[in-house]
Amino acid sequence: MRYDTIIRHGTVVTASDVFKSDVGIVDGRIVAMATGLTDADEIIDATGLYVMPGGIDSHVHLDQPSGPDILMADDFESGTRSAAIGGNTTVLAFCMQEKGQSLREALKAYHAKAEGRCHIDVSFHLVVTDPSPEVLGQELPALVADGYTSIKVFMTYEGLRLRDDEILSTLDAARRTGALVMVHCENEDAIRYLIGRHEAEGHLEPKYHATVRPIAAEREATHRALSLAEITETPIVIVHVSNRQAMEEIRRARERGQKIAGETCPQYLMLTADDLDADALEGAKYVCSPPPRDRESQEACWQGIEQGVFDLFSSDHCPFRFDDPEGKLNARGRRHFRWIPNGIPGVATRLPILFSEGVMKGRIDLNRFVAITSTNHAKLYGLYPRKGTIAIGADADITLWDPERFTMLTNEMLQHGADYTPYEGLAVRGWPVRTIVRGKTIVKDEKLTGSLGYGAYLKRERSSLTR
Ligand code: URP
Ligand code: ZN
Ligand code: ZN
User: Fold this and answer.
1) Nearest-CA residue for atom 5 of ligand 1
2) 382 Cα: distance to centroid of ligand 2 (angstroms)
3) CA–CA separation, 414 vs 83, rounded Å?
4) CB-CB contact of 292 with 240 (8 Å)
5) 377 Cα–ligand 1 center, Å
6) E strand or H helix that includes residue 296
7) Per residue in 293-306, is it b (16+ CB within 10 Å) or e — as a string?
């Protein structure tokens, strides 16, 4: 048989196995796995490299309206470019419903933003901010049938948060339709109360972003979300978990028999609230929600990764420029932490950081790395087995990793739209030296080799958790 491409002499890693095999690709799909494959238009030598499923980052914000005079630093072009540089082959971005807007209208706008602008494959989660009877009763069932099988709800942010009765009706609609619900768990009323206290005391610097969003506000909202999910009998994902107490809520809910997935992110392993307490408003660079916590929370999140509390390791890439009047240091943000846009860039650094800090430092094995950065994302968000594994019949979405390469992270190499990375100067061991999407090399040694618009929109099946 003649192949379009053969990846030869590499070590294939999946969520369950590590083995020597060549990989034969025809028409963008894996058609053969064996040693000694020959006869192809293109032969890629993977000697000394790991051949892994491409990263799937299921928590990415791109080209999202973020308040008056604030501009998100990445659109679909720059965001998917940076994702590819960091070894990803698929991202799931958010389609934000505006109040009063139908979900179909919102989707039309996001499809227009993404159309012809993606380097890697993309799909959308629906953010429900206006759960009207029409949205939940008519739109959602039709959209789930059309392949939009996940939604996100917020318990914080004025204008986005849902009240408990709205969360209940959204969860109920999700249970009936089979949509998977992601929940951002922080208690908005508690945060408002603390903001008021800080304002009265004149405490307005970036570091106070962390103190108005304490662990108790996240733990309480996590407990409430899990209780509402139990009452409605609906599986949910608790996203961007930052600390042990929220993790314990997830553990307890699972022990009660609930179907729950948990997600954490690099910022909760690598940053602390001390990073927000830097000179000259530098702390604004690290403002995200939930905020990074302390060393003990970092250790807890590592344990959650090792022990299976977390199924997903995502970036929560939500990039804003730092030194920019439309970014972190906008006129109001300079004066009050409340107006610093929340979110940090991370789509390119997620995989190298976990590979280096997790695999190379012996905290997790290669299989767990693949599971929480790719396979579980595909399963939970209805892309498996087309995506998220290396198997015959799957899309040839493959990242080649050089486990020995040392790299010092710099903002420039990440090729995103932000003017900083929170991880500037971090030394990582192991690097994604080639990113292949549906059989085509789109990044080689940090250089884009693909063509803009190659990335395709992915219609998804229902989640493994809601089936
Ligand atoms: O600060 C963050 N995480 N911003 C992104 C929006 C969200 O809550 O995921
Ligand atoms: Zn969130
Ligand atoms: Zn997010």
Assistant:
1) 343
2) 20
3) 8
4) no
5) 18
6) helix 295-307
7) beeebbebbbebbe
From the CA of 250, how far away is ligand 3's center (Å)? Answer: 19
Element (H, E) at 427: strand 427-437
| For ligand 1, atom 4: residue with the closest CA | 343
Lining residues, ligand 1, CB within 6 Å: 61, 184, 240, 288-289, 316, 318, 342-343
Ligand 3 center to 343 CA (angstroms): 8
SS3 content of the chain, % helix, strand, coil (to 5): 35, 25, 40
pLDDT, residue 248, reads 98
Nearest ligand, measured from the Cα of 328: 1
| E strand or H helix at 442 | strand 440-444
Of 156, 162, 318, the residue with max ligand 1 atoms within 8 A of its CB, to mutate for a pocket test, comes to 318
- The two structure tokens encoding residue 324: 């920019």
Ion ligand 3 residue ranges (Cβ < 5 Å): 316
* CATH topology (fold) of 54-368: TIM Barrel (3.20.20)
Question: Which string of b and e fits 310-326 if b means at least 16 CB within 10 Å?
Answer: bbbbbbbbbbbbbeeeb
- Percent share of the chain, pLDDT over 70: 100
State CA 91 to chain mean position distance.
7
Tokens of 320: 């804003």
The pair phi, psi for residue 273, each rounded to 5°, is: -60, -25
Q: How far is the CA of 433 from the centre of ligand 3 (A)?
A: 27
Ligand lying nearest the CA atom of residue 60: 3
Tracing tokens 């932490």 back to the chain, one arrives at 337
What ligand has the least distance to the C-alpha of 225? 2
Q: Whose CA is nearest to atom 9 of ligand 1?
A: 316
Q: Measured between alpha carbons, how far is residue 171 from residues 152, 155, 193, 325 in Å?
A: 10, 13, 27, 38
* Torsion angle in degrees (nearest 10) through CA of 404, 406, 409, 415: -60
Q: Residue with structure tokens 């034969």?
A: 24
Strands 50-53 and 180-184: what pairing? unpaired
Tokens for 403? 């486990």
Q: Tell me the average confidence (pLDDT) per consecutive run of 10 residues in the chain, 467 residues long.
A: 98 98 99 98 98 99 97 98 98 98 98 98 98 98 98 97 98 98 99 98 98 99 99 98 99 98 99 96 98 99 98 99 98 98 99 99 98 99 99 99 98 98 98 98 96 97 97
Query: Residue 114: its pLDDT value, please?
Result: 98
Domain extents in the chain: 54-368
Is residue 97 a contact partner of residue 126, using CB atoms and an 8 Å limit? yes
Model confidence, pTM = 0.99
Amino acid at 375: T
